[in-house]
Amino acid sequence: MGHEMLRQKALSVLAEEYGESAAEARLSMIENVYAPEICDAFYSYVQTGEIPVLEYEGFTFEEVQKRTFSTVTGTFRFFHSLMTDEDFKKVFREINFGRK
Which of 28, 42, 81, 94 has its CA 20 to 30 A from that of 36? Predict the structure, then answer.
């Protein structure tokens, strides 16, 4: 699949979850702000539909998704925060994300 076709599919995936008006901004953030490995994993997900295999300091993508009750696309944002925000990373293990 060519890059432009893949990008259009990515916009479609994001529009389903966040609405068309927010899809372009979300994709721009993924492409320009998130770490390259997160961007690559996102595009791989869009292309294959398979849950990404990402790990950072002992956190797997699936673990982050389960802990945060996020959709796959939403989990990319949490994973980015783990990689870039030291304060978030420090408290992530302690946050219960609505669990009692």
Answer: 94
Residue 85's Cβ-side half-sphere holds a number of Cα atoms within 13 Å equal to 13
Which residue in 78, 81, 17 sits closest to 46, CA to CA?
17
Q: Would you tell me how many other CB atoms lie within 10 Å of the CB of residue 27?
A: 21
Domain segments of the chain as ranges: 3-92
Q: What is the pLDDT of residues 17-59, one digit of tens each?
A: 999 999 999 999 999 999 999 999 999 999 999 999 999 988 9
